[in-house]
UniProtKB/TrEMBL annotation:
It comes from Niabella ginsengisoli. Transmembrane segments: none annotated. Keywords: Exonuclease, Hydrolase, Ligase, Nuclease. Its EC number is 3.1.-.-. One of its GO terms (molecular function) is exonuclease activity. This is Ligase-associated DNA damage response exonuclease. InterPro entries: MBL, RibonucZ/Hydroxyglut_hydro, Xnuc_lig_assoc. The keyword Ligase applies. The keyword Glycoprotein does not apply.
Length: 341
């Protein structure tokens, strides 16, 4: 038995007649989170976690038809019991639990199992079949703890401040930016790009408390910037806008910095492996703990990861989807909104 089909429109639940994170417009779309590769424009009706609503309205339009649910509550759709459970990925991210005739499926979307200080912590959900990402599904990807990551970042900031340098962080606008803001609160004044500020304002309408920030632009006075912290989206990396920040030191924050650093750090000063996805051990421990008899592996190192799961006795299948690097998907959306900036 299965409650899921992988179709040209997206992940479909035939018993309930709805889709989860479809990549083409459908009548009823259940959304795991607000990143651009999972929440796409054009569907007739959306269902998402309550904290994702203002994010999706900011990105897809205020007039979209959307209903919301909190974590843990359930809804019956054509006989299928549906509930949302924390994925720990970003604010409002949810795993979608489906139950029908005693059979349970969970579509995890993107997930992270360590608490990041701002997203609702990940909740393990037992199931018969589990859909997992594999963005960092290789053994090389093993993250430092949240404490270690931010100790390293704060030490870098302190060194910059001793030299009167401005610490500039490249981090995508939804998820990573807010995580940095929370983790660096108190380390200096926080300035953010307008694309990040726009999402911050949307998130605040859902009742989420974020640190105080100021909007940075090329006309921001030097005295307001020097020695402080500026958070910018990846679309600005290498542009003249960054060069206009006086005495700046630039760091990239991305899980890819674990192994891709040498290639991408040529024009920056530092890189930190900060990821909103589970690492290799996080993926494996989660999949084993769900107890799922069938695992579907989506975006990332799908072939390699599915092969490994089968080798250790977990029935896994690689599936093709249109999910991808949320950084790339989100920043292309930002460029469109910001007129190419």
């Amino acid at each position: 038995m299965s409650l899921l089909r992988f179709t040209k429109e997206g992940i479909y639940c035939p018993q309930g007649d709805f889709y989860i994170d479809p990549w083409k417009p459908v009548k009823y779309a259940v959304i795991t989170h607000g990143h651009g590769d999972h929440a796409r424009w054009g569907s007739d009706h959306y269902l998402a976690h309550e904290a994702s609503k203002p994010i999706m309205q900011s990105r897809l339009g205020a007039d979209i038809s959307i209903e919301t649910m909190p974590y843990g509550e359930s809804k019956i759709i054509n006989g299928v019991k549906l509930s949302l459970h924390p994925a720990g990925h970003i604010i409002g991210s949810a795993q979608i639990r489906l139950e029908y005739n005693g059979f349970v499926s969970v579509v995890s979307g993107d997930y992270k199992i360590e608490y990041d200080g701002i997203s609702t912590p990940f909740e393990l959900v037992k199931c018969n079949e589990f859909v997992t990402e594999s963005t960092f599904g290789l053994p090389i990807y093993n993250w430092l703890s949240q404490q270690q990551i931010f100790d390293n970042i704060k030490n870098w900031i302190a060194g910059n401040q001793r030299q009167q340098r401005t610490s500039i962080f490249i981090a995508y606008s939804l998820g990573k930016a807010q995580r940095l803001m929370k983790g660096l609160e108190g380390s200096g004044s926080l300035l953010v790009h307008s694309s990040i500020d726009r999402l911050n304002n949307a998130i605040k309408t859902a009742g989420i408390v974020l640190p105080d920030t100021k909007v940075w632009n090329v006309d921001t006075p030097k005295v307001d910037v020097q020695g402080n912290i500026v958070i910018l989206p990846p679309s600005l990396l290498g542009t003249n806008m960054i060069k206009k920040i006086p005495n700046g030191a630039v760091a990239i924050c991305s899980g890819w910095m674990q192994i891709r650093g040498n290639r991408r750090w040529q024009s920056v000063d530092a890189g930190f492996a900060v990821s909103d996805h589970a690492d290799w051990q996080g993926l494996l421990s989660t999949i084993k703990a769900t107890g799922a008899e069938q695992v579907f592996v989506t975006h990332g190192y799908t072939a390699t990861f599915a092969k490994y799961l089968n080798e250790i006795g977990i029935n896994a299948k690689e599936v093709n989807t249109q999910y991808g690097n949320d950084e790339e998907a989100d920043e292309s959306a930002n460029r469109e909104k910001e007129g190419g900036i």
